[in-house]
Amino acid sequence: MTKENFMVEEISKDIVLLLMEEHGMSMDDAMRVLYTSDTYNRLSDLRTGLYSQSTAYVYEYLEKELATGKMA
């Protein structure tokens, strides 16, 4: 596993936990929401560099996507 892939996985884990805590989602629902999102597509595309941002930064994008149906 590369350093970049590790960072994607760590951010993903943290976001799933945040979704569970802040939205009362089950782990399955939180994982489905994250892994089917445009935010995750961009996070896992190493060319975007989104993996190098903080969890809070990436989570903010996901929150906007959930609220509006698209990334800002």
Oligomeric state of the chains present here: single chain
Between the first and last Cα atoms, what is the distance in angstroms?
30 Å
- Beta-strand percentage? under 5%
Alpha-carbon Rg, integer = 11 Å
Average pLDDT: 95
Broad structural category? mainly alpha
What general form does the structure show?
globular
> Poorly predicted ranges (pLDDT <50, ≥5 residues)?
none
Question: Could you give the count of β-strands?
Answer: 0
SSE order, one letter for each helix or strand: HHHH
**Helix segment tally:** 4
> Major sheet: size, sense and barrel closure?
none
Spell out the blueprint of helices and strands.
Elements: H1 3-23, H2 27-35, H3 38-44, H4 55-68
Helix pairs in contact: 1-2, 1-4, 3-4
Key traits:
72 residues; mainly alpha; 4 helices
Describe this structure in words.
With 72 residues, the protein is mainly α. 71% of the residues lie in helices and 0% in strands. It has helices at residues 3-23, 27-35, 38-44, 55-68. The radius of gyration is 11 Å and the shape is globular. It starts with a helix and ends with a helix. The mean pLDDT is 95.
Summarize the structure.
This protein has 72 residues and is an all-alpha fold. It has helices at 3-23, 27-35, 38-44, 55-68.
